[in-house]
Specification:
The protein is low in regular secondary structure and 147 residues long. It contains four helices and no strands.
Amino acid sequence: DDNDGVNDSDELLVGTDPLDPETTDGTPDGSLDSDNDGISNGDESDETLAVATDVAPTDGNPDITFADTDGDGIANDVDTDDDNDGVNDADELLVGTDPLDPETTDGTPDGSLDFDGDGISNGDESDETLAVATDVAPTDGNPDITF
């Protein structure tokens, strides 16, 4: 209805106003990226359809609200390694690397870093399948990726 490039159903899904082309003043709703996947709402939404949509998904589910940074088919909100770099997201937050970027430092995969300097890479120390901070080596129960 507001001609901002995002269909009204998608706007309702992501919380923007389908009657206001700039729900946040100064930023067109079509320029927003509600799921933080690097693709604008306008590019993800088919404004000619009345139903929630996305021009990319193959599963039939609108993914204007479904962020899947690494493209593995698992939504970031349940994926334990959003960027598929071999380090679980909880460990990345502990050591200060970006859980949505497999190379926080360009050219060096986060899993290859050795944040604690113990000679074991972050990728080898982290169990990427767990949502909690972890280390595959400790016997004391404390994650030692940061020590």
